[in-house]
Amino acid sequence: MNNGLWRYRHAAALGLVALLAGCGGGGGSTAATCTADCISGQVSDGSGGGVSGVYVTATNPTTGQVCSTSTSVTGSDGSYSLSTSSCGGGAVVVTAPAGGSTVVNSWTPGQPATGVNLNPGTTSSIAAFAGTWSATYTSPLTGGDSGSCTVVVNTSGVIDPSQNLDNCKSNLSGSFTLTGALNDQGYFVGTTNTGATYIGKFDATNKSAAGTWQNSQNTDFGKWDATLP
Prior knowledge:
It is built from three helices and 16 strands. By secondary structure, it is mostly beta strands. The radius of gyration is 22 Å and the shape is elongated. 34% of the residues are buried.
């Protein structure tokens, strides 16, 4: 065989092997590593055991479209890692198959990126926060902002723009939109289109919620609370 042609075919074959290895192909057991905007956790079944061999996906709740899928299946303990780089920088709904059903959790930037676990309990515990919450917010500053919000939390724990456009009323600047997500413990991180960040915790049992807010556009800040009728 012509030496030049042999070298070309040999290099091409090596390149193909490297490509397959990088994509988790070739029968390798090493899971692909997430390198940007990663979240991670475990997928487990009803008995608490890890669910291996499944892909985890993230959905953009605003569009309803899957925006990311894990590059490899879960490990023997159900562990996964998933990039959210293509999900728009906001809340995501994270899902995976477990047994004959789908397990669900939610995550938004500002919440811990590790320990985003998926198990049968997360589906029901997040759904417990669903409903239309009535909220008020205040500022301790003279001339600071105050107002009210009507916040729709869906069964995936997400406050998405499609249901919450202009859901807040400011006594200083009119309407604005608050969005975000709760995790399965009720911890909440949200943002507004006016530059404020809201954090806090929802209590499904007592149908109450409370936390703090901070506007990045100025020095205004304060507290908020909410109830579920």
